Fold this protein.
Amino acid sequence: MSSEPVEDTDTTTFVAEISLEANYPVQVTDPHDPVTLHLSSMPSGYLSPHRITKPVKDVEECTCPTSTSPDFPKELQLFTRPCERCFCPAPPPKISDLMNDKDLLDTLRLKLDPNHCTIKNWKNFASRWGMSYDELTLLEHRTLGSVSLSPTQEFLLRYNQKSVTELTDLCRIYQRIDVLRLLQSWTEKVWPERWQQTH
C-alpha cells in the first residue's frame, strides 16, 4: 500500500463553497416563499456556465401621480411628493431665473424704481455691485420717463449671473425688508415649482 496524497478530483463542491460562501452571504429561502426566484422566471441566457451576469435595470419613466397627469388636482399635489427617483431639489436661483417671472419683476420695479431721498433703491444696489456714478447716471437718464424701460430691470439684467441670495443680502444691508420678504417668498414657494416644471 502506498502512502501517496489523495487528490480530490471533484472540484464542484470546492468551487461552489469558495465562490459563494466565502465572497457572498448565502440566503436559504423556502421554495414556496413568493420572494424566491424560480429559474423558469429568468430570461433565457441569463445564467451562463462561463460567467455570472448582473441584471440590467430598465430605465423607466416616473409613474408617480404628480408627474403623469397634468390634471392632477393641485390640492393633492401638496400632500404627495414626487417619488425619490424623479425628485431633485431645485438649485439656488440666479437673477436670470428671476427675470423670467414677469409678475415678480413688475413688483420689484414698483419697489425699487422710485427715487426717494430716504429709501434705498436700485441705485444703491447697483453701486454696491460696482456700477460707477457715470453708469448710474446714464442708466437713470436712459430710463427716465420710459414706461417700457426700468432702471431696476436694466440693473438686474446686467448682473443676471449673480444669485438671488446675493440680492437678498443687499436687501438686508439696505434694510429693504419689503423686497427681502418678496424675494424669500419667491425663492421658497414659486422657484421650486417653476424649476420642477422645466426639468
